[in-house]
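Q: Sequence in, structure out?
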Amino acid sequence: MIEQELKKMIIERYSSLSRFADEIDMAWTTLDGVLKRGVNKANITSLIKICNGLNIDCESLYYGRILPKQELLTSTPFNENEIDHLKKYRSLDDYGKKAVDALVDIEYERRSEPKEYIQLLPPIVIPSYGHIASAGTGQYVFDDIPPMMIEIENTMENQEVSFAIDVNGDSMEPTYHDEDTLLVKKQSALNVGEIGIFMINGEAYVKELGKDALISHNKNYKDIELTENTICIGKVVGVK
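A: Exactly. Output:
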């Protein structure tokens, strides 16, 4: 299995999984989860960190092969969005690829026109509470967990983001997946149909607010009845 080869490579180079996790700034539990659940189910951010730490090609790893990282002519590595777009592009038929190519050509020409200057805004720094927001059976409250500070793009939409939290489980698929990093705006109430982070008896859930229950998008999971113990922590406003 590719995960066993990956684990062997990590131990050969770093002596232990925990040391490697520290080196790439990743929680040991996240690394362990990737190796147990499979690289093709991992969050793309986690894969990029692992591949950069081992100097291997990220796309090849996703498809079950360990290959040395390829140097680009621009010496600029793909970011997670570019890798995701490339995977989607390769799944298109000829008609779809021609449509995408035409749009890319138009945008490339537009961006190639001379510009006086582009003002870059500094990233927004927010606390991230890691892999504890359950999309399944629930996790303990995270108020006493020291957060890791992360950067997100400085956009109008992200101005309202209060914190980030990782999904744990698959009950919100296909909307959100295990290990997705959710961006959350703190607020104590939601409208029906909105997705948020909720606390029930000291456990955190990510669910859609229904009229009388918290709704799971994966039909294999039962909805959770709303009670006086259900507390809204915030609204999910995006994914990192």
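The chain is about 30% helix and 20% strand.
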